[in-house]
Amino acid sequence: MDQQYHQILQLKQELSVPARILITTHQGPDGDAIGSSLALYLFLRKTGHDVAVVTPNDYPDFLQWLPCNEHVVNYMRQKAIAEEWIEKAGYIFHLDYNQLKRSADMTHSLSQAQAVRILIDHHPDPSLTAKYFFSETEASSTCELLYGIMKQWDAALIDRDVATCIYTGMMTDTGCFCYRNTGVQTFLAASELMKYNIDRPKIYENVYDNFSAQRMRLMGYCLNSKMEVFPEYKTALISLSLEEQQQYDFVVGDSEGFVNMPLSIRGIRFAAFFLEKEDKIKISFRSKGSFPTNRFAQKHFKGGGHLNASGGETRWPLEKTLQAFRELLPLYGEELNGEQ
Ligand code: 5GP
Ligand code: MN
Q: Which atom of ligand 1 is nearest to the CA of 96?
């Protein structure tokens, strides 16, 4: 019996009596984080458990249409309820993250929790420990990995709503099944999910055609006035100050996808997006090919993530952060130029 199947059976056995189960995910939740959390929420609720999803903070409107979204508890806004869940949970799932600090303000409380931990994640270099540990960097997304687990757990509990959540996370983490992380298993899972009669075009529309007019204008402004291209390093960056965000009525999620835009320029293999926040600069990195953005993020910007998609931050002013990034590029010139 393979290791994963053995773990699933053991977990299923443990959860054969009703329990208080908390599902958590990383700060700034994305489609995979919310998709996997709600898929698992729907799945576990069918077996009579008391279940909650708690996110560390807000997430974009384009993820707020998923089934049972109204039940998600936001730690930032509903701290007392969230704390009670953390304290009283018998089981805590960590979905789509593998370092406790990625849960931001929840980190301390989660580290004190007495619950049995279950990790389901696809990021490299886990530092979080858990009794049940499903960590697979080969998986395109946590949703893909979770789907495989659910099938072995009890396929009869997967329904259209679960399938919708799973498909959403797979779609967003693979850039609509385009990025390098998209594998045979991804397409197999996607085709199986279609058998649940999910509304594929509607899911796409809900996620990608759900922006304000101001957001589209902001995108135009970024491309026109804020993109810096460094052809000698096959790199480009975009940055947005708080003042510029105010000018365009910025809301959470408005800059989603901006980091990818420079990668559409012929020859560009590495892109960075810098978003000024009240207390920090949040940075997103993306690459094509073999340039390891996660190592770069880890080494220089207290971050991490996947090879081609990662993030980090600084506590410096925006301009100082940008300058630090620009000055790093020559150090990586050879590596970046080796990129085809
Ligand atoms: P995004 O740029 O969309 O915020 O994040 C891209 C990927 O990098 C995601 O897989 C996310 O989990 C990871 N990531 C983003 N920011 C950080 C960070 O500060 N630390 C770590 N370890 N991973 C990050
Ligand atoms: Mn993910």
A: 12
